[in-house]
Amino acid sequence: MAMTLTAPAAPASALAPVRRPLKPAAAQVRTFEVVASRTVSPGFRRVTLRSTGDGFEDEFEHFGHDHWFRLFFADVGQELDLPFGPADGWYARLLAMPEVTRPAVRNYTVRQARRVGSRWQLDVDVVVHRDAAGQVDGAGARWAQRCRNGERVGLLDQGRIFDADAHTGPVLVIADESGLPGVEGIANTLDGRAATYLLEVPHAADRRALPAADVRWLVREDGRPAGSAALDALRTTRVDPAAYVYVVGEASFTLAARAHCLSAGVPKARIDFCAYWRPGRSH
């Protein structure tokens, strides 16, 4: 039987939400250092980064929600070289660097941000994808497994995608495991506002507590494509056309989920989506 997805009534405080910025007023490629790393569940490695006092402290404002950034890191045995400068033109500067010194770059969300003394610390949960042989797959995941305290990286603040600040109707969030760190940031920022979540993870142990959230956890069966369990659940759900919808994860899954919500009557303007990755390629 299909499930009707409607969120419970929003608290009065949600009827006049605070409008938060979507993009930083200014951002530069900045240097950070690793201060901690640990495995938090079978599918996630948590890395804590600390700013190094080169100006990030003055320009950064934590937007909450799915606040994301670009992370630059060196390959094994390589010295870190960064495309320093403003956000505009960062990619051209990266491509202009010699290939032998050009860092890898991947996109991540801020799980938690906090001031410690005069520095910012950012907790970043990195998904540990594995190939058919069980080996860690992907440059970002391999880096998160091997990084050591004191290692330098680069960071470019990019803002956020989730944008339901002005929306007072139901909120529906759909994600595979790559979207889970950002989803946790969203749940923390909504701070009790009614929302419904369809969240897929590869291991039951990857589930985590989300504050005041109506969560349907979906543990993917071995061998099935990422997003398949969440998509199956969505297709048996009656989506409220008045909802704001946020979809992130593997590319084909996000496109299929968006198409389903459009066919359910949700306007394009109220669906934010982002393809975080596709098999064989990270974003």
Characterise this structure:
There is one protein chain. The protein is an alpha/beta fold and 283 residues long. The chain is built from six helices and 15 strands. The protein has two domains: 134 residues, Nucleotide-binding domain of ferredoxin-NADP reductase (FNR) module (Rossmann fold, 3-Layer(aba) Sandwich); 130 residues, Translation factors (Elongation Factor Tu (Ef-tu), domain 3, Beta Barrel), CATH 2.40.30. Strands 5-4-8-2-3-7-6 form a seven-stranded antiparallel β-sheet. Strand 2 and strand 3 form a beta hairpin. Helix 5 runs parallel beside helix 6. The longest helix has 13 residues. The protein starts with a strand and ends with a strand.
- In CATH, what is the homologous superfamily of the largest domain? Nucleotide-binding domain of ferredoxin-NADP reductase (FNR) module
For the record, the CATH class of the largest domain is Alpha Beta
Mean pLDDT across every amino acid position: 88
**Helical residue percent?**
10-25%
Rg, Cα atoms, Å = 19 Å
Strand order of the largest sheet: 5-4-8-2-3-7-6
For the record, give the distance between the C-alpha atoms at the N and C termini, rounded to a whole number. Answer: 36 Å
